[in-house]
Protein: Enoyl-CoA hydratase
Organism: Streptomyces griseofuscus
Amino acid sequence: MEPQLSHQVTDSVATVVIGNPAKRNAMTAEMWRALPPLLAELARDHGVRALVLTGEGATFCAGADISTLRGSAHPAQGLAVAAEEALAAFPKPTVATVRGYCVGGGVQLAAACDLRLAEEGALFGVTPARLGIVYPSSSTRRLVSLVGPASAKYLLFTAELIDTGRALRTGLVDEVLPEGELDKRVAELTRTLVSRSGLTQAAAKEFANGREDRDAHWTEQARTAEDTAEGVAAFLERRSPHFTWTPPA
């Protein structure tokens, strides 16, 4: 089977699968190129309330397909950064579901997600120092924001793989699950995400990502949306809320 990204939408959750199992789900140039338009399509779909990114089979993503880096890494790196930025900008909650190897470009993708859940035994590494490649500045800043300067330098300087215990301690992952429990926990988490206010989530994501020019926009959205009234009514009536806000076209 040709390397590809596949996706499906179930119960308001889009699941995007990195599929290149012959190379531990390494991303080819075509796969990097395909991710931004796929994300744009899913972002426009009001039936999608959250997104899960995972790898086919027993591994997440072993990075970029090294065969695409012959001659110069710059073109492939540009595609990877564009895909990473598109994922980081996705306006709804995103969850990376990590098994096996999450290395190089795999870490770029996982770090661009809002949340990262991993199965025990997963291995993480940021490996450009093994290839003499300059890690992109945007990717470096995102890594530093997750794990702090000291841990980011360790990962970048050594290119060593770390286990889930260290990844959890440094903040690279949010939860580590025993073998066989990851899918159940991701399903539980995404059910929670899609039940919450999309208005709250969208505003919080922008603010947490550092955007500072949209206070008036979100004040107006909150004023005209029905989510607050619904949330308060549901609380007082001791029922589950039914939030209806969707992003303006």
Notes: Residues 198-237 form one domain. The two ends are 37 Å apart (CA to CA).
